[in-house]
Design a protein that fits this description.
Blueprint (H helix, E strand, L loop, with lengths): L12 H20 L10 E6 L5 H12 L3 E6 L11 H11 L2 E5 L3 H9 L5 E3 L7 H15 L6 E5 L4 H13 L2 E5 L8 H10 L4 E4 L2 H5 L4 E4 L11 H7 L7 H4 L7 E4 L11 H4 L6 H19 L2
Parallel strand pairs: 1-2, 1-3, 3-4, 5-6, 5-8, 6-7, 8-9
Helix pairs in contact: 1-5, 1-12, 2-12, 3-4, 5-12, 6-7
The structure holds phosphoric acid mono(formamide)ester and norvaline.
The site of norvaline has 9 residues, from α6.
């Protein structure tokens, strides 16, 4: 059976840990110039129905470093944008390519794509999940803190795709996660229910950012309006007042805490300029690790 990477909940702790170890190994090889052509001669299609900087570049460069070819496709310039059914696109792509990464809107689109694909499909972000990003974030936490085990994670802001994926990670890997989200902007109820059943007591939800960040080791935030929610920007600016990860909030966390943001960031909204540029920020390492973890995911899935 073809294995896909659509959501963390399809994976167990040992498998996710294995990917993180491989990512670290591949990072070392790349830094030392040691060849690691694990996708020699393979082609991976990279389909984007939303904008991207990091995901596009890190996948394209990553496939190249593995000896393969990354093929960029946007919905606007392909028949997908003209309504060709997902299942038809999936079956055709699998006749040409050895793997597919797709960034799109509903999670049901990647699920449908994968159901009809005989080659591995990787979720490069949906409205519900961003699993490659959280894996890169975990690699960064391990580099900075030695391990994710026993660390306190905090999320401040929108209960969006990033928050949902952190919730899954906390439940599968077993760490404490406190989320502060404004009322009406909570994470996905189904994801929370699944995670609470799997790891009772690990995940807490509050409307108080100060309570969430208190004594945390890892602070995380993201934009108030995600891709596709641009029309809600003004209304969200009102709802998210007090949810800016600024120096005052960071001061409540552990002095050696790390601050993460998947980027792109809106300085002065969800994070202050002084925090993202400050001594606790690891956002550039976090962005770099997209490259390494995605290479590990592709090299593991694509045969
Ligand atoms: N963090 C992230 O996925 O960035 P892009 O939207 O630039 O790909
Ligand atoms: N939550 C953001 C993440 C961007 C990488 C979005 O979906 O737009």
């Amino acid at each position: 059976m073809t294995r896909h990477f659509l959501a963390l909940h399809d994976y167990g702790k040992a498998e996710l840990d294995g990917l993180l170890v491989l990512a670290n190994d591949l990072k070392g090889k790349q830094k030392q110039g040691v060849p690691h052509r694990l996708l020699d001669g393979k082609t991976v299609a990279l389909i984007f129905e939303k904008s991207s900087t990091r995901t596009r570049v890190s996948f394209e460069v990553g496939v190249f470093q593995l000896g393969g070819h990354g093929l960029f496709m946007s919905s606007g310039t392909s028949q997908m944008g003209r309504g060709e059914p997902i299942r038809d696109t999936a079956r055709v792509m699998a006749r040409y390519c050895d793997g597919v990464m797709i960034r799109t809107f509903g999670q049901e689109i990647v699920d449908e794509f994968a159901r009809h694909s005989s080659v591995p499909v990787i979720n490069g972000l949906t409205d519900l999940f961003h699993p490659c990003q959280i894996m890169a974030d975990l690699q960064t936490v391990i580099e900075q803190k030695g391990s994710y085990a026993g660390k306190r994670f905090a999320w401040v802001g929108d209960g969006n795709n990033m928050a949902n994926t952190w919730i899954e990670a906390a439940a599968i890997l077993g760490f404490d996660l406190a989320l502060a989200c404004p009322q009406g902007y909570e994470p996905d109820a189904g994801v929370l229910e699944w995670a609470n059943a799997m790891a009772p007591g690990r995940i807490t939800l509050t409307n108080d950012p100060e309570a969430a960040v208190k004594d945390a080791d890892v602070l995380n935030t993201d934009v108030w309006a995600s891709m596709g929610q641009e029309a809600e920007q003004k209304e969200r600016e009102q709802a998210f007042r007090g949810y800016c990860l600024d120096d005052a909030l960071v001061a409540l966390a552990r002095p050696d805490c790390i601050v993460m943001h998947c980027l792109p960031a809106h300085r002065g909204e969800e994070i202050s300029d002084s925090v993202i540029e400050g001594k606790n920020s690891v956002v550039w390492d976090e962005a770099e690790n997209r490259l390494h973890i995605q290479k590990a995911i592709m090299a593991t899935l694509i045969k």
